[in-house]
Design brief:
Blueprint lengths: L1 H14 L6 E8 L2 E8 L5 H6 L1 H6 L7 E2 L5 H10 L3 E5 L4 E5 L30 H9 L7 E8 L5 E8 L5 H13 L8 H7 L12 E3 L2 H9 L3 E5 L5 E4 L17 H31 L6 H10 L7 H21 L5 H18 L5 H14 L5 H21 L1 H16 L2 E2 L2 E2 L14
Antiparallel strand pairs: 1-2, 2-4, 3-5, 4-5, 6-7, 7-9, 8-10, 9-10, 11-12
Helix pairs in contact: 9-13, 9-14, 9-15, 11-12, 11-14, 14-15
InterPro entries: Spore_Ger, UPF0353/GerABKA_families
Keywords: Membrane, Transmembrane, Transmembrane helix
Pfam families: GerA
Length: 440
Amino acid sequence: MVIRMIAIHAFLQEQFSGNDDFFQLEEIVHGSSIWLFGLRSMIDVPQTIGNLAITIEHMNQPDQAIKHGENESDALVAGILAGRLVIFDAHSGQFRIIEPVSKQLNRAVDAPSSESVIQGAMAAFIEDMYTNVGIVREQFKSGRLKVSISPVGTEKSTSLALLYLDTVANPKLVREIKNHLNAKKQIDIRSLQDVSRILGFGKWNLISKFKITELPEEVAAVLEQGRVVLFVDRMPFALILPNSLWDAFTLGSDRNFPRPIMLSIRAVRLIGAFTTIILPALYVALVAVNPEVLRLQLALSVAQSRDGVPYPAAVETIIMLLLLELVLESSVRLPRSVGPTLTMVGGIILGQAVVAAQLVSNLLIIVLAATTIANSTIVGIQNGYLLRSLKYITVVLAAIFGVLGIFVGVVIICGLLAGESSFGISYVRLPFAKDDAEYE
């Protein structure tokens, strides 16, 4: 027993060499000598030692003992890295892994930071996966909600929690997702791209295969639709599978409004999406290729606004769109205290300067402002990025074919969206149910 203790002691010292937060302490509890091993950065050592006498009384539980064998050392290292306390009891000669008093490493549940809520619950998900699962369980205080937790990764172990309602979700969909999680457990998760690899999605997909939200109310709504929710530990949001085009126009909190207002809000979002894709292309088509479509007075007004502009309409539009992308991206990277003010002032000054220098027309500035506002009506950050990318297709085709190019671009975009699917569910179909014929 002494030899085993010395061997394990030496192994842990070697395994955690170079980690100054690793501790090993000897304590006397109830007249018996015990050794404690753990990480100070994850364990509140003083409070843990203060509660040690009570903890020792419950150490006779057989599920806490580490059996002597070839996997004993790996189990101890894994327990320490997970923030648990390893205890060696000299009296019984056994190593045990227990839950200590942990340090507070997670922030409190707070209001959402990337999604605005109107007449809805203000709680948002945090980085701790189990806290997020508990928040969802508050929405479903019944046995319908099922939670399946799977650890993945070799060098960086990460837990994933799969949530679904067994009375609504289709068993084939749940089984297929679980198969992907079990088949690729060796992949370390460092970003959502790694999650996509585990789920079998292509790395060059323009359209995201899952919807991202930090709102528990939204998760509750999609679970009732029969979809599946995935939580990744240390990521403060939920991944909803499969994603749907209509998620860009609907929110669960919309139902807190009267039905006519709810439908009106969703109609505005649809109009915003079409405006984002079509309006810049329409400016290029009517100014550069098909000016005869305009009434004479309007055509003269447009020509007057472009008087002195040295670039073709397509070139000035693409340049200003790219410049606007730089402004939007910088507003995300700048600190919150100066970001909105700096980008607003910079945008106003920049817009006035380029017009005064006759580099672009006044009408284009109006078009770009309307496009940016319309793009902001879309639900979800990733959906907004998608629309910002798709509008370049219609702009390029409008510069070549005019108004006909806009229609061609819209057809191409519709085909691109219709061709996307995840786990056999089309991206453009309406929310599905358990008895869907496709899954029978």
